[in-house]
Amino acid sequence: MELRHLRYFCAVAEEKNLTRAAEKLFIAQPPLTRQIKQLEEDVGAQLFDRHSRGLTLTPAGKYFWEQAKQMLAKADMVIENTRRIAEEQKAVFSIGFVPSVFYGQLPSLVRDLRQQTNANILLHDLKTGEQIEALKTGKIDIGFGRLTIPDEQVEQTILFQEPLLVALHVGHPLLKKGEPTLEELAKMPMILYPANKAATPTFADICTSLFTSRGMTTNVTQQVNDLQTALGLVASEMGFALVSEQVRHFGRDDVVFIPLQDKSITCPVIFSRRKEPMDSITALAVKILKNLVENHQSSL
């Protein structure tokens, strides 16, 4: 089986029509039909049900399609990284992260990796669910997120639990009352981030579940894509936002960060990597990260 066979299959699966798939691939239909039949023989399973008006995937075909897309994405990433290495004579090491972890251990990890390796370190702003897919396709090598998303190909480790803080405008009247409760916050306009258009949960779901799990409703007035925009809305007195403790280092004169009254309310920092033997750079990253986490815990 060659990569072109997978590309042919994916085109047919997407179009559900051999004629349109052939046009998309710039090949004639009869050779494409033969390639698909040969692929089914090689796999040993029927991948498509044939109908007078087109094709539909069989259950085996649906599984094969998901795996084929991952294999093609990984192959494309390998080719891209190989070319980059050839041009720059450097290995490529990619890290996925959610913005709220960028103010903690991640900058130190990147700095130490740059100092101790000859690798080209690439950073990708990805939600935790996106990181899982990126790990499986090889787009990233490790990831830092907030959510546990079970996947048989990915190993996730909770590094530590981090307190959640309330971001308020510097002149907000709630500041005079001390540390707020969730009951008080539930009555106020809430700003959520990130906006979630995907099926997998995000930090926004963590925040809303704090209220719903306690039988409270939230008054979400704005949902935005990123942390900086959320803090900008807080500064504009549009409402409050819940943020991780690391965000305290995000310096703004017009926003203050205060603890919740309930100190048991925390959010995890989660490290993700592929379930496979570690290469030398990943092993070094894990070693550096272990020291950084130990230093963080000892400073509490």
From TrEMBL:
It comes from Marinomonas polaris DSM 16579. This is DNA-binding transcriptional regulator, LysR family. Belongs to the LysR transcriptional regulatory family. PANTHER family: LYSR FAMILY TRANSCRIPTIONAL REGULATOR, TRANSCRIPTIONAL DUAL REGULATOR HCAR-RELATED. One of its GO terms (cellular component) is protein-DNA complex. Pfam families: HTH_1 (PF00126), LysR_substrate (PF03466). PROSITE patterns: HTH_LYSR. CDD domains: PBP2_BenM_CatM_CatR. Residues 1-58 form the HTH lysR-type domain. InterPro entries: LysR_HTH_N, LysR_subst-bd, WH-like_DNA-bd_sf, WH_DNA-bd_sf. The keyword DNA-binding applies. Keywords: DNA-binding, Transcription, Transcription regulation. The keyword Transcription regulation applies. GO terms for molecular function: DNA binding; DNA-binding transcription factor activity.
